[in-house]
Amino acid sequence: MQPIKFHTSGRLKRLKRAATYVNLRRKRFVALLVTLAHIAGALTSVQAVMETRTAQGAIAWAVSLNTIPYAAVPAYWAFGRTKFQGYVKKRQEQIDETSPVVRHFIDLASEKQFLVPSRPREAPLLERLTNLPATVGNHVELLRNGEEIFPSIFQGLEQAQDYLLVQFYIVRDDFLGRELQSRLIHAAQRGVRVKFLYDEIGCYQLPRSYLDGLREGGVKVNAFNSTQGRANPFQINFRNHRKIVVVDGRHAWVGGANVGDEYLGLHPRLSPWVDTMVRVTGPAVQAIQVPFLEDWYWASGDLLDLDWTPQGASNGTSKTVFILPTGPADRFETCALYFLHAINSATHRFWIASPYFVPDEQIVSALQLAALRGVDVRILVPEDCDNRLVRLSGWSYVASLEKAGVKVYRFINGFLHHKVMLVDDATAAVGTANFDNRSFRLNFEITLEVQDEDFAGEIEELFLENFADSRLSSALELEERSFPFRLAVRIARLMSPIQ
């Protein structure tokens, strides 16, 4: 019997032809994707060249977008743009709604003689930057660390009768966060109108159940939602970093503290957590309501009905206060210009504390010039930091600053998180803005500046205590570190625009 032969040659040929066809299609598909990626990179590089703020940045983006578009294109759309175009457009649309409210407040403040009668030299500049006036008749109380900050805020929440405006960058579902939640719900249940605004990037770990609990308790909740709008789905680089609490248009809190147990000294590594806020009473409270009004309108489309009639502080103090809300939707780089003006106006002292120190070249030059003209320039930063990239890049500035006489102090007794500034003997500021590119150009911030020698004296005392818990840094320290560390410092410096 002859063995059975299976004629498989034809089938193998067909299978080979099919495999060749599949491979050819796969190669064509990959080639198409590569071509589209390079086209997208080329088109995006045109936008980068047209819109990037500095020549160096434009060159860096153009090269990377055309050489490695697969990584650079999504990176540019997420981190490369420094103008929040969706917000700018919608903010222009809301001017007709919000401007009359702000104008009404300014008219009332003028009528009640709360505007500065003889304005200091810098007042016109700051008022033009922010479109908000400096006011007198304010009381400002300095609050230090969580044990002073949150009891003060919680007491204010309990005293609310009409409305509460609460805005934080980070809120955690921990002991302190749940305490805030409970008090907001309690206020809503007794008839207070409670508005809670949070940044969805800063609160990415906040569970939905926390927000649902607020809503079920009668609190109106909105995320700032920087990505809303058809043209802005990738704008995750913009954050609302403001921390604001307003009670009935009569009391307000502004400063660096978020809501989390670390602010009570419970962080496993970065403790104690050093921070500062201020409690404000007087016509400046209405000015603090303005950025909340605009942020809420952006997030919800609702124009809040608030009390815009200013009242003087009941204790008879009369501090001059500027409120400076800043952000990427401003006509100018308001935050950077404000700090640049403060440095340039210093005659004998400029001290600033910031957990994140990543300035740009114009700020570095201003600090150098101030020191060279004899100003006592001191920068206070934490020794340890919750952001390794920021900590590394901060080292890259020490040598150039030290050469001009700028002193850089590193706080060694915990994590220094407050954002505080002292200029000469009568100007002090507390706010949310860090001394870095993100706060200068990418974040929505709020800073409160006080023109008052007594308050400046309190800030001076705060600084002196911080300096006592710090060590003077030097460029020699970096030179003595290992090559991998110094290389990491330089790489971190290159990434500073998105930190």
UniProtKB/TrEMBL annotation:
Record-annotated PLD phosphodiesterase domain positions: 236-263, 412-439
Cellular localisation: Cell membrane
PROSITE patterns, per the entry: PLD
Pfam families documented for this protein: PLDc_2
Chief place of localization: membrane
Keywords tagged on the record: Cell membrane, Membrane, Repeat, Transferase, Transmembrane, Transmembrane helix
Broadest EC class assigned to this enzyme: transferase
Name of the protein: Cardiolipin synthase
Native organism: Geoalkalibacter halelectricus
Gene name of this polypeptide: cls
